[in-house]
Structure formats: structure tokens, C-alpha cells
Amino acid sequence: LILSVLLGIASWSGIAQALEFRAIGASPVILYDAPSTKGGKVYVAPRGMPVEVILTYGTWSKVRDMGGDLSWVESKELV
Predict the structure, then answer these.
(1) Whose CA is closest to 46, among 23, 72, 70, 79?
(2) 7 by DSSP, 3-state: which?
(3) Rounded to whole angstroms, how far apart are CA atoms 31 and 61?
(4) Which long-range contacts (CB under 8 A, 24 or more apart) does 33-37 make?
């Protein structure tokens, strides 16, 4: 009952969000530590790598990889 109430409050207040899973597109891409190509390069993600989209900021998406690391990728590179 308590969990139902908390979930209802979270949904009502806009806190709850649907998880969005995507993948890196047809070719490898560079992941950055900021939403800009001027940011630090974190690593090169291979094509097809699954990611969870945490948020979108302009043309960039902040993603979490399977290891739990957060980084930024251009949204157009996700499928």
C-alpha cells in the first residue's frame, strides 16, 4: 500500500519517468564528458552498444552505459 501511494505521488508530481533505451548507430562514435565536441573525449563507443538515455539537451543526449558510466553523445548517433 505504501509503495502504491509513493508511486502515485511520484507519477502525479512528474518525478517518475519512463526508461529510454537506445543504441549507438551504424558506426562507432566518440562519447564526451560534456554536451559539446569541445568537451573531453571519454571513449569510442562501438556500433550497436546499448545505452540508457538519461536526458536530452539540444542536439545532445546524456547516456548511461552498461557499466553505469555517464557521458554525452550527439542524439543523431543513436538508434
Answers:
(1) 23
(2) helix
(3) 10
(4) 33/71, 33/72, 34/72, 35/60, 35/62, 35/72, 36/60, 36/72
Lookup: cell for 78? 543513436
Q: How far apart are CA 64 and CA 66, in angstroms?
A: 7
What number does CATH give the domain 18-77? 2.30.30.40
Q: Starting from the edge strand earliest in sequence, which strands make up the sheet with 50-57, in order?
A: 20-23, 50-57, 60-64, 70-74, 29-32, 41-45
What residue type is 9 in one-letter code?
I
pLDDT in tens, the chain (79 residues): 654 544 554 544 454 567 899 999 999 999 999 999 999 999 999 999 999 999 999 999 999 999 999 999 999 999 9
Domain chopping of the chain, boundaries = 18-77
CA pair distance 40, 31, nearest whole angstrom: 9
